[in-house]
Structure formats: C-alpha cells, structure tokens
Amino acid sequence: MPQMTAETLVERMKGIPEFILSKIVEILDSYDKESTIAEGFLFERCPKCGVIHPRIIKGGKTSTGKQMFRCMHCQSRFTADYGTYSFYSHQSREAWNELIKMTITGETLETISNVLGVNIATAFRMRHKLMCSLEDEEASARISDQAELDEKYLVKSHKGERMEHVAGKKRGTPSPKRGISHDQVCLLSGVQRGGGSYLRSFNMARPTSQEIMNLHPHIEEKTYIWTDDCPSYNKLIAALGSDSKVVSTHKDYDRVNHLDNVNSFHSLIERWYNKMGGVASKYINRYAALFNIRFQVGRMDPSEALLLVKSRVRGIKGNSFVTIERLKQERLFSPPELRWEAGQTA
Fold first, then answer.
1. Residue 68 β-bridge partners
2. 46-66 in b/e burial notation, b at 16+ Cβ within 10 A?
3. Could you report the per-residue pLDDT of 205-231, keeping only the tens digit for each?
4. Residue 261: which residues within 8 A CB-CB, separation 6 or more?
5. What is the CA angle 8-14-17, rounded to 5?
6. Residue 146 DSSP SS3
7. Residue 298 and which of 46, 68, 89, 194 are 20 to 30 A apart at CA?
8. What is the pLDDT of residue 35?
9. Which residues pair with 198 in a beta bridge?
C-alpha cells in the first residue's frame, strides 16, 4: 500500500462517514495519551516529594538539553526521565528510542554501536539498563484465563568472563551431561492464550514443586492450565484452584488441548539466543525480560513497539534508578550450580 501524505489523508477524510471519524478521533486520543505517558510528560505524583496529582510547570533545561520540570508543591526540579533507565545517561532521547527499537528487533551490539555512534561498551550498558527496567516491569506481570506452562532449558555459560580453572569451549557446544542436568538453566514460562506471557529462571536443572510455586504471583486464580507430564506443577495448580489438562505427547494434542503457544515461544527464544551467540547465565533474567517483551510485541511496527515498551517502563511503581554499580551487582542469577569452583570444568 503506497504511503499516504497528510494532504491526501485530509482529502479522503472529507467523504468519510461520521462514525468512522469518531473512531479515528478515539485512536488519535488514545495515541496522544499513550505517547504522553511514554515520554514521561504526565505526572501522577511528584517523583521528589510524592504528592499526588501535583501542579507541574516547566523549569528550564539541563546542560545536555533535557527538559526540566518544577513541582509547585515542593519547588524541586527534575527531568521527565527522573528515576528511569535513561536518567544517568548523557545520550539523547532520540538515541534511546533508536536503541529500544533495535534491541526489540534483535540487532547486535556492534550494529547498535555503529548506528548510535557510541563505544560498544556504552551500547552494552545502555542495553542492560533497558533490560533492568524491563525486569522491574515484569515483576508485576500476570497471566490469566487460559495458560500453557512449560520449561525452556539453556546450557549454562560464563560468556565474557575468563576463568582460570574452566576449560574453554565454542559457543553452542551442548552440555557433556546427558538429559536435563545442573549444567542447564531452567526458564519457567507461561503463555496466555490470546495474549500475555511470563518468563523467568529460578533454578538449574528440573524444577521442584517449590521452585514452580514462584509462578504463583504471576498467574490469576482459576486460570485453566495446560502442562506436560511434569508432576511438579501439581502443587501450583492446587494453590490456584485451577482446572488443568496434561498433554504429555503429540498424541494427546487436539484443537484445544496442546502446548503449541508455549512451544512457539521456546522456538523463538532458541533462535534469539543463538543469534546472540548465547548470553552469560548470570544475566539470564534480564534477557528473559527482553525475550518476553519481544514475544509480546510480535510483528508490531517498530514505532508501535517503542511506544508500548516506554509506556510499560514508565508504569513501574516508584523510581527505578539504574546505575553502573547496579548493572554489575544487583539481581544476578547465581544459584550454587552456576558457580564454577576451582578445578571444575563447565
């Protein structure tokens, strides 16, 4: 379909019925509201004093050109991105928007570095700041109605970290141990039919019933659940008061009873993970949050996906400061099975 200019659009709208025009107005109003929230120009409370529905006015600009605002209740000044992933960054809003779009579409760090004109280490930190915020946002995620639950396993990796007592190996090398072992990171995943998903790791190897209970805060009660024949899900299903169906093999599949949605999610994870050449297992939950949002935006236009991501990140309760120190230390996935002891090979 050829791109429509503003003039052509105005001309065509002259003959559009009233009910169609009202729908267009609704879409534009919705976009305007989402855009305002995403860009941080709508303040439900002051980020400094916490007063609800404050009177906010413009308050000059920073040395890097960021718009500042002033709360008339406490007289404090702050930027629109105060407390978010871009707060401590010298990069422009346009650079961050481009990074988000390229990260969602799966571009490499090298490509991002070249497009933004920044050092590859800067691109790495920017991507991890974004992923930290996505991880914060996913902490409140919930799926409901009908959900498929399963696990995805990835071979543990210490990519980017040289270890004296760990033998090197090429990326993509399978685990030397047969079956599901403690050499593999377990990603618990849930996909809601019709939309919504959740992905996070809590353990290595096969999950226990107690480890699967970590999904409980992220699934609505009475949600109908499909699983494979892993008995560890029984405790969760009972706690949710849910009906469920076990589909252990493709012989059990029919139009209703299947795990096609969650299996499709796992196939995409495998593809994205391999394209990255694997990721360090200590960062696995940051990448799980990224994989989750990629799955949810699907084939959205990059600009639409950008708006969705920024709106969600802005919706995080409280400030979510992401410093360089936090990137190094906080919430790294590090169970005992992930640590390489002296003399122990990977």
1. 79
2. bbbeeeeebebeeeeeeeeeb
3. 999 999 999 999 999 999 999 999 999
4. 148, 191, 193
5. 125
6. strand
7. 89
8. 55
9. 190
Whether residue 226 contacts residue 233, with contact meaning beta carbons closer than 8 Å, is answered with no
Tokens linked to 189 = 């995943």
Q: How far apart are CA 222 and CA 68, in angstroms?
A: 46
For 207, residues 6+ apart whose C-beta sits below 8 A from its C-beta are 151, 186, 188, 230, 232
Which is nearest to 266 in space by CA: 291, 249, 286? 291
Confidence of residue 51 (pLDDT cuts 50, 70, 90): confident
Lowest mean pLDDT among 32-36, 182-186, 252-256: 32-36
Cα–Cα distance measured from residue 25 to residue 28, given in angstroms and rounded to the nearest whole number? 5
For residues 199 and 288, the answer to whether their CB atoms sit within 8 Å is: yes
Q: Which residue spans within the chain are E strands per DSSP?
A: 56-61, 67-71, 77-79, 146-155, 184-192, 197-204, 224-227, 244-246
- The SS3 assignment for 117 reads coil
| Residue 177: both structure tokens together | 């141990």
The amino acid that residue 2 corresponds to is: P
